[in-house]
Model the fold of this input.
Amino acid sequence: MVQSVELLLDAAAESAVRAQWRALAAAGLPSQAAHTGASNRPHITAAVAAELTPGAEAALSELEFEPFPVTLGSPIVFGIERLVLVRLVIPTRALLALHRRVHAAIGAAPGVPGTAKPDAWTPHVTLARRLPPERLGAAIELIAADGDSPATVAGIRRWDGDRRREWTVRGT
Done:
């Protein structure tokens, strides 16, 4: 299963992303709003692995962290046939430095995708998965008018996909 380390957003940014989720859902488009579990919240995935060792967990709990500002930028799309619509998180030195510290903490964890590693990562917040290509224009039209928006990385959490549970590592 998947183990992940996720960066949490401040309440105002989380609310703005959830509003975009709701707008997509109201238009009959795929949206993260369809996932109603308590653990589903807007986030930036900083690391993904098949497994994290107890040493990695300990290192994550000791990460140096202070909240810092980021900007949620333009919508971008991943994929070819079943698209993933996301908001780009404009990389900053603080964001990239935290990403490197997270990866140093998890070490040589198995199953880390190449696109999640430092120097290959595209920080983003997911809005919709499995978006049909013919609906992409409508989805972007709904959210693009919001433009860039300020956010704060307010905390770090862990998601354990095997046990389907989450917990805060640092911050909120």
Observations:
- Residues 3-171 form a domain with the Cyclic Phosphodiesterase; Chain: A, fold (CATH 3.90.1140.10).
- The helical segments are 11-26, 54-61, 93-106, 136-144.
- The chain has one domain: 3-171.
